[in-house]
């Protein structure tokens, strides 16, 4: 979209227009960079002092910040949400594929809906089903009997293994692998015996998955990701994991097998979740959280050690290594105090 008037934006966002509705907005920018033809937003009042110097053609802000800005404004309860919505209106991201490339391989019995686009060197195997308006980027692999719902978009080099089910309006970034074998082995006197992973992966609607993320298929039952889940880049979701509706997980997180994560959870980057545990609905785990046991109640949980100057960290580490010794000494002192009281 080349441009849109401020009045049109207000109507689409349900915002209150203050100023000239005929102004044309062509792009979005940060408050310190925005100029003519651009819109910006103020989501936190602590930055309102920058409004006086803002050169944007319009600003999205809250009612309480309106008096600090003399230019064109869109008044909203949540300007950050407004930023997300207008970014969608002005999105210039290209499609993952157009038409069906002559170099793509499509099995004779694969089923393609209306408006499907498949990029160069993509492979669509036997029995696969692609819904209407699916986009398959260059170099993707869609395995046997996989199902991809309408409007879903796969960027280049995504691999979808056999029997995987991916819902409607999903977005999968490049080099993600969905449906690879879970880490299942038995041990026979020191020799590893592979356990074929006979389950699959079922992903709901409106799920977004970042680049280079791996979601393993189940051992017997399926790995399940419910609707409206967002997963960041470079994550490992092991076999038989279940992730509930509306949960968001940041990059580098690792979830071990058979863990169940509830609805509307937020899990910070580089967190590690042990296997065979359950996380209640509405739990927040801050970055670098190490979760070894189930969390049964909603709340915020942390375990990562904040950064310290190296000299202080060395002292902290040395003290941590002596905790057991200190605990024994403390118990001895407490016992003596009880005997003398």
TrEMBL record:
GO terms for biological process: lipid A biosynthetic process. Its EC number is 2.3.1.191. One of its GO terms (molecular function) is UDP-3-O-[(3R)-3-hydroxyacyl]-glucosamine N-acyltransferase activity. Keywords: Acyltransferase, Lipid A biosynthesis, Lipid biosynthesis, Lipid metabolism, Repeat, Transferase. PROSITE patterns: HEXAPEP_TRANSFERASES. Pathway: Bacterial outer membrane biogenesis; LPS lipid A biosynthesis. Residues 23-89 form the UDP-3-O-[3-hydroxymyristoyl] glucosamine N-acyltransferase non-repeat region domain. It catalyses: a UDP-3-O-[(3R)-3-hydroxyacyl]-alpha-D-glucosamine + a (3R)-hydroxyacyl-[ACP] = a UDP-2-N,3-O-bis[(3R)-3-hydroxyacyl]-alpha-D-glucosamine + holo-[ACP] + H(+). GO terms for cellular component: membrane. It is an enzyme of class 2 (transferase). The active site is at 239 (proton acceptor). Coiled coil: none annotated. Homotrimer. Belongs to the transferase hexapeptide repeat family. LpxD subfamily. HAMAP family: LpxD. NCBIfam families: lipid_A_lpxD, PRK00892.1. Catalyzes the N-acylation of UDP-3-O-acylglucosamine using 3-hydroxyacyl-ACP as the acyl donor. Is involved in the biosynthesis of lipid A, a phosphorylated glycolipid that anchors the lipopolysaccharide to the outer membrane of the cell. This is UDP-3-O-acylglucosamine N-acyltransferase. The lineage of its organism: Bacteria, Pseudomonadati, Pseudomonadota, Gammaproteobacteria, Vibrionales. The gene is lpxD.
């Amino acid at each position: 979209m080349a441009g849109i008037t401020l009045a049109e934006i207000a109507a689409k966002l349900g915002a209150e227009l203050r100023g000239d509705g005929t102004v044309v907005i062509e792009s979005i920018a940060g408050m310190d960079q925005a100029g003519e033809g651009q819109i910006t937003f103020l989501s936190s009042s602590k930055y309102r002092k920058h409004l006086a110097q803002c050169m944007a053609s319009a600003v999205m802000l809250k009612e309480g910040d309106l008096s600090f800005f003399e230019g064109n404004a869109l008044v909203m309860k949540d300007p950050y949400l407004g930023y997300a919505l207008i970014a969608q209106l002005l999105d210039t991201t290209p499609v993952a594929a157009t038409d069906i490339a002559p170099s793509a391989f499509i099995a004779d019995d694969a089923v393609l809906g209306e408006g499907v686009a498949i990029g160069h060197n993509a492979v669509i195997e036997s029995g696969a089903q692609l819904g209407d308006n699916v986009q398959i980027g260059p170099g993707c692999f869609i395995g046997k009997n996989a199902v991809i719902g309408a409007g879903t978009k796969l960027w280049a080099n995504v691999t979808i293994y056999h029997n995987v089910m991916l819902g409607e309006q999903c977005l999968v970034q490049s080099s993600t692998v969905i449906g690879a074998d879970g880490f299942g082995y038995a041990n026979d006197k020191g020799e590893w015996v592979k356990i074929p992973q006979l389950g699959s992966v079922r992903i709901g609607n409106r799920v977004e998955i970042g680049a280079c993320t791996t979601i393993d298929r189940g051992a017997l039952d399926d790995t399940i990701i419910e609707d409206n889940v967002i997963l960041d880049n470079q994550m490992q979701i092991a076999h038989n994991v279940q992730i509930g509706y509306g949960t968001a997980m940041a990059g580098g997180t690792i979830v071990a097998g058979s863990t169940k994560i509830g609805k509307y959870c937020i899990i910070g980057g580089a967190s590690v979740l042990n296997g065979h545990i359950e996380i209640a609905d509405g739990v927040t785990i801050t970055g670098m959280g190490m979760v070894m046991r189930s969390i049964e109640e909603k709340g915020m949980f942390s375990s990562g050690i904040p950064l310290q100057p190296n000299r202080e960290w060395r002292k902290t580490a040395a003290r941590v290594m002596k905790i057991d010794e200190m605990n024994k000494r403390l118990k001895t002192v407490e016992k003596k105090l009880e005997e003398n009281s």
